[in-house]
Amino acid sequence: MNSTKFTFLLFSLFLIISCNKDDTPQEIIYPENICTGDYIILNQQELEEFGANNCTKIEGFLKISGVSDLTPLVALKEVSGDLFIGYDVIDETYNLVVYDNPELSSLHGLENIEIIGGRLNISLNNNLEEITNMNNLTFVGSGLLISRNDLIDNCFFNNLITIDENTFQIVNNNSLTNLDFPALEYTGNFIIDNNNILTTINFPNLTSVGLSVAIVVFQKPNTINLENLNTIARTFRIEGASQNSLNVPEINSATRIRLEECDVQNLDFLQSLNTLELLQITQCNNLNNIDELIGLNSITDEIDIWNNDLLTNLDGLTNATINIEDLFIESNPLLTDFCGLSGITVSDEYAVLSNAYNPTINQINSSLDCSN
Fold first, then answer.
1. I want to staple 166 with a disulfide (CB 3.0 to 4.6 A). Which of 126, 143, 305, 349 is the partner?
2. What is the pTM of this model?
3. pLDDT band per the 50, 70, 90 thresholds, residue 229
């Protein structure tokens, strides 16, 4: 073999070995650089200039508007205060802040953020198509708001575990179809509303909510996965859910229940409740009884039951002591049996109207007249 061929073979072997090495771009490790202060970015040039600092932590808040590219923030891992991207209206005790980024189409540049000590707000970014790349974020200290982003269809936070205080709120995103927070375990308040075509809500590890849950969906069929949720400090509200797609375990703690326009056939997920302030069941047209509430010991404030097409009796409340201010039972066309309310006292408004049977409170408390 002549020297030219041998050299060529060696060069080819070198290329093969080189090409079989991992060609994945290596993560750039930025040295720690703590930037102290509150930063308001109003345009792309200001963001480029700020990004040149390669801040890994901001001890303060960061508010961004009027930009098209967030990659100058790629070094950032932590914001001790609030992070606002877009539009926000803050309580008057702070001030009024209005931001928007009409040219921003991606959140690339925020993928290394792990901790936000204050609030995360992503709002009124009308060209933003998805929120899927903040997958190193594990903690938000004071609430998350995603609102009025007209084009986003997917919103995924794969490793966010805790939103420590205040509100988790996903509202008014007109193109949003999929919402997935597989690691989230706790939040202070949980609101999903007015996302017109949202069909998939996945929170498989959410176990506890410090205040209330409110989920409103408009599209059917839909999937609502809350398979480990069991503790809610205050209100549990579900509107528009389908029975076959509502994956909720037995809720063992809540004080106010509101079921509206739900295609549920039973209330298995409420059978562990003992005490309620409010019970509201409206327009649940596949529900013919509420037997799963037989474990209730008391209701102390209000009962609203109306426009339930198949409901025939209220026997599920038989074991509850009911001393309430207001009672509204209306427009349940098959409801004839009120004996489950025997012993009830109502201190203020009593409205039992347009049902198949409409007893007075004295008739409800009479074993002879509580049903027809």
1. 143
2. 0.86
3. very high
